[in-house]
Specification:
212 residues; mainly alpha; 8 helices; elongated
Length: 212
């Protein structure tokens, strides 16, 4: 998951912070691939409601676990990753155990999760835009999540087909954004060196001034 802090605005980055964020690029890559594959499976499979509940719940739990081990892409505290990962995993568990109409539970659970994640991504990307070179990608991801969230939360009579397409295509598109972000995150140390005129990790305390 693309994690940002909605309250901490970093005005400078040191190379040490850059390296810490960059080391987590593979988590973004893995969760992105999981989202793309899961979204494709959701869209192109003939589902029963019960099977969809099991699949979506499992994907949320797996993604939540990966998110808890990721580093926020804006260099903020890992507390935000742990929080969002726990929320995603708990929603996955809730999908399994919540009583009542299964399809409505899936739609509403994913809707509230996407609204929470999307709002954090939007606020976090805007507050970190001065130092986050890829803040626009994070912003787009947040807007996408909020849009799908409102669609799912305002359709109490949602059909299985509508839920499948909304959840599946949103998962695939968000996964593509995660993969794209992972590539940018991996190259952050090189970008830092280009902007500061330094080479390698020898000066880990050199600050990076805000970039647009």
């Amino acid at each position: 998951m693309i994690v940002t802090s909605p309250v901490d605005e970093l005005r400078t980055w040191t190379r040490g912070q850059i390296e810490a964020v960059s080391k987590g690029w593979w988590v973004l890559l893995v969760t992105g691939v999981i989202s793309i594959v899961a979204g494709a499976v959701i869209v192109f499979t003939q589902w029963t409601v019960d099977n969809l509940v099991i699949f979506v719940g499992t994907v949320l739990i797996v993604r939540g676990i990966f998110t808890m081990f990721s580093v926020p892409v804006d260099g903020s505290l890992r507390t935000w990753s742990i929080l969002l990962g726990l929320v995603e995993a708990f929603v996955g568990v809730g999908v399994f155990i919540w009583p009542g109409p299964a399809l409505l539970v899936v739609a509403f659970s994913i809707g509230w999760l996407l609204l929470f994640r999307g709002t954090m991504a939007i606020v976090g990307s805007v507050s970190s835009r001065k130092v986050l070179p890829y803040w626009g990608v994070v912003l787009v991801a947040g807007i996408l999540e909020v849009f799908v969230a409102f669609y799912l939360l305002t359709r109490p009579d949602i059909t299985l087909l509508a839920a499948v397409f909304a959840i599946g295509f949103a998962a695939m598109l968000y996964g593509v954004l995660e993969v794209a972000t992972s590539i940018v995150v991996k190259s952050l140390p090189q970008r830092f060196d280009e902007l500061t005129g330094t080479r390698g990790p020898r000066d880990t305390n050199t600050p990076l001034e805000p970039v647009s």
